[in-house]
Amino acid sequence: MPEAMVAPNEIAYNAAISACEKGRQWQLALNLLSLMPDVRVAPVTITFNAAISACEKDGQWQLALNLLLSRMPEARVVPNKITYNAAISAFEKGGQWQLALNLLSLMPEARVAPDEITHSAATSACEKGGQWQMALNLLTVMPEVRVVPNEITYSASMSACEKGGQWQLALNLLIVMPEARVQPNEITYNAAISACQKGGQWQLALGLLSSMTAACLRSLFLRSCSCSATP
Q1: Which residue, 7, 85, 109, 210, has fewest beta-carbon neighbours within 10 Å?
Q2: Model pTM score
Q3: What does the pLDDT look like over 6-54, one tens digit per residue?
Q4: 94 lies in which domain range?
Q5: What is the C-alpha separation between 228 and 231, in angstroms, rounded?
């Protein structure tokens, strides 16, 4: 672009960094971000979101943290929900459950409301860190902050219980999912069955397998009926 006497602007840099993020090229994304001040192009929230997401996809949680807590304040750029979600996901992939929870707790002070993506990432971080109590606590407080749990949140919570040897709690979560209008899926059933297996509850594991098969057949039947009804 410079050779054609056309200077790259904010939109061009944002698009290029987003392309690097999608291509899992975090080094290139950060290099482009670093070049922007030299060409007098100011990065904005979208720019940093793409850069943090690029770091998140490759598990570079330290770099994501630096972008959020150091580079963004230096550039006087305010993070938004997407920024926080990307950073928490980076901490989750990096096994940093404490940082994930700390960042989640800072969001209200920054006047940024967490959503189901935020809580799912934080819950997954707790699950990977073996913190089943923390995972359940996050699931419990979600209605209080007007966030509706989804399949990912329940799956992560059940996996946390499974890893912690809490088969009763995992099974209870599976039972209450329909009441919360969340349909159990293959991942949630697998987590519950694995929890029962680790707890020596083979009868319950077989019962869940039977329920899983019935639910799958029911889903296939309804899908078939839906397709048949479509003109």
Answers
A1: 109
A2: 0.84
A3: 668 899 999 999 999 999 999 999 999 999 999 999 999 999 999 999 9
A4: 8-113
A5: 8
